Amino acid sequence: MANAIEAPAGTTAEGPTSHTLFQADRPANTFGYTRQEQIEALHKLREPFAPTEIRYLPRVWCKACKNAGWNGCQNHPVAKCGKCKQKMPNGGHIDLAYVGHAEATNRLLNVDPFWDWEPLTVDERGLPQADGYKGLWIRLTVCGMTRLGYGHAGDKTGGDAVKEVIGDAIRNAGMRFGMALDLWTTSDLEIIESGGASLEQDGQEKPPNAAGQELEKLKAKVNAGWNNALSCEQNLHEARKKNLHHEEVPVGDLMVRIEDLLTRRINELKAAQGGDTERNAA
User: Fold this and answer.
1) Where among 151, 178, 201 does a domain terminate?
2) Which of 35, 202, 206, 270 is least enclosed by beta carbons within 10 angstroms?
3) Residue 153 is part of which domain span?
4) Residues of the chain with pLDDT > 70: what percent?
5) DSSP conformational letter for 132
6) What residues have CB less than 8 Å from 19, skipping those under 6 apart?
7) How many domains does the chain have?
8) pTM attached to this predicted model
C-alpha cells in the first residue's frame, strides 16, 4: 500500500487555509503587525502630549545677561519664570519645550508594550559603547519598525550620565517616529543644532523664537477683542490652531491658560448678552 501523502501544513484540498492567508498578509520584519496596524499604532506616537507631561528647559539668549553672570542685564531683570519655574532673565531667555524620559517611556508603552532599544555597538564586555563624543547611537524598535537615535549627557558624569544618555537617545529616536515633534519649532531646532550660536549675531541680541512672537501677537488680539464674544471665539480658534491654547499668561498674581481664560470670557459675555435679551423681552 502506497504511503499517504500529507498535505503541507496550512493547506487543505481547497487550497491555503485562512491561517496561512492571515500570515501572508503580514509583511516581513514587522513582528506580527500588518502594515495597517503598524501605521495606526505609529500615528499614536504623534499625538500631542498633555500640558502636564510637557517640561520647559530655559536657555538664555541675551549676551549681556550671560556676561553679567546669568544675573540679568539692564533690560532683563531676573524674575521667576511662569513657564520653566526658574529664576531667569525676564525676556532674556527662551523656554524649550520637551518631554522627559518617563513621559516618553509611557507613550511608547501605550503604543507598543513590546517596544525595545539596543545600542548600535557594544564593547568587549557586551555593554553599550559610546562614540568619541561620549554619545550613544541606538536602534529603537516600535511596532516592528526600527529607527536610529543619538543621545548625549552633556556635562553629566558617572551613573547619572549613563541614564541621561540612554533617555536622550530614546527621546531622539522617538522624534524620528514623530513623537513630540510638534514641540520642536524651527527656531528651537536651530538653537539646538548650533549649540546656541544662532542666538547671537555680531554681538546683537535676537528676539525670542517664532512661537514667542506668535504668542505676543495673539495676546494683543485677545486684549483688543476682550469685550466681544465673537472676537474671543475667533482668538480661541486661532490659539488652538497654532497650538498656543495651553500657553499660560499672567492674570493678576496667577498664571492662566489661554484656553481657560478665553473660554471663561466667552461664557461671561454670552451670559451677559442673554440677560440683556431677557430684560429687553420683558
Assistant:
1) 201
2) 202
3) 51-201
4) 75
5) T
6) 10
7) 2
8) 0.56
